[in-house]
């Protein structure tokens, strides 16, 4: 792989990283909502006061796991569109 190809791939990776920073994934379960950005950072959590503590804990955990999975899937799709990196 030439240096030019490597630089091109680095540029593409930077573009994907910039796109991911702007993405937000929102997951809601039982009135509990979690928002995660493309860097897999939690931006917001909204609880449902009508649920008990254990139900809220379970819903938050499930929302976070689902949101992270969605971000990872989005990243994998973007990476696959770029082709093989030779890494």
Brief digest:
With 87 residues, the chain is of the alpha+beta class.
| The CATH class | Alpha Beta
Taken in chain order, the helices and strands follow as HEEEH
Main sheet strand line-up: 1-2-3
What structural class should be given to the helix and strand makeup? alpha+beta
Spans with pLDDT under 50 lasting ≥5 residues? none
Query: Count of helices?
Result: 2
User: Radius of gyration from the CA trace?
Assistant: 17 Å
Query: Helical percent range?
Result: 55-70%
Major sheet characteristics: 3 strands, antiparallel
Mean pLDDT: 87
Instruction: Describe the oligomeric state of these chains in a short phrase.
Output: single chain
Name the CATH homologous superfamily. Answer: Nucleoid-associated protein YbaB-like domain
Dominant shape = rod-shaped
Count of individual beta strands: 3
CATH fold node name:
Ybab, Chain: A
